[in-house]
Amino acid sequence: MKPFLYPTIMILSFVVGQAQASGECCYIAVGIVDSSCDLCTPGSCVGTDVQCISSTQNNCDERFASWCPDDTGAPTPSPTSYPSYSPTAEPTTSPTAYPSYSPTAEPTTSPTAGPTTSPTDSPTAGPTESSTEGTTDIPATDPVPTSTSAGGGGDPHFKTWNSTWYDFHGICDLVLLDDENFANGLGLTIHIRTKDRYPYAYIESAALQIGEDILEVSSFGEYMMDGVSKVDMPAEMGGQFLVDHEQKSDKEHTFTIKVGESEAIKLSTFKDMVTVMIENGSSADFGTSVGLMGKFGDGALLARDGTTVIGDHNLFGQEWQVLASEPQLFQTSSQFLGKRCVPPATTKGRRRLGVTISKDAAEKACDHHKDMKMQDMCVFDVIAMGDLEVAHAHGAF
């Protein structure tokens, strides 16, 4: 092995303590200097597993160096204080305190005889003779959440079952959620219809089916139950769920379907924008659901085949366009039925409107959101649509 030359400035940075007498050595390893060593002799001072720099001028600033012996011989019975600069002749039987600077001739034999029941705070010194007993306090993998929230609204933005957000601006009817096992086989389907607004889109209406009953909610709180407009509320769906209607103002309406003690499906409108959110959804009720909200638990964006993961949000949105072969929940047919979703049109009007709302004004309108992701989406929508009141629509998220 060729000598390794340390520049003068590097050697000086390592030296601490008194200068060495003529013929003594500075032992250097991992930035530590032992100024008490005598000679560059294998086994002296801190041993043969460190680098020694020869000194003949009462200091350690010479521009030449030599290594301690290349071969450290047989492995040490216990971890060394510093890493070896050359591989041991045979692999060590337990891990050393620091990594070796070169690989061993053969793999080390340090796996445990059996799995540990829970992770250790730091690496173990050697293999365990047998597996430990007892249950783990911490699961080996992330558990599937027992409840969570998901839905869509705004520009529109979609929230998956693992609280990840993504955008899809295609204009068409879309399957937000479908779960044939909901309520012991009663079934739940939610379709949304998006509409063009400048180069962006928004959810214009939503249709929700439980059993044979269909609730359709559209802009400014207009609604129909099984094709009948403005039926008395609360109304029953599927023979066991009640839907209630709350009107906060002429611009704000909320339709709530209680699913369980804390679970609820909410369809909210602010002006002409519709938001659909499932709050505190459980795996018992939504565990087999599919659609734009992804797979329950991990939020995987699965295709209709139930196994293929689609990484592109635009392709994923198109995957869940309502097909002509599927039930049509809206009273009026989609103009894009049997056609691909189309992107919003770009107009000069949008660009002109976009500059009428400053970022500062939009941020002030959206400051009720404590979550930064929600605030960013709100600011984006306010500026894109040129309407400060759009910030109120995000209160439904």
UniProtKB/TrEMBL annotation:
Keywords: Signal. InterPro entries: VWF_type-D (IPR001846). Residues 71-155 are annotated as: Disordered. It comes from the Eukaryota. Residues 148-328 form the VWFD domain. Residues 1-21 form the signal peptide. Residues 79-128 have a biased composition (Low complexity). The keyword Plastid does not apply. This is VWFD domain-containing protein. It comes from Seminavis robusta. The lineage of its organism: Eukaryota, Sar, Stramenopiles, Ochrophyta, Bacillariophyta.
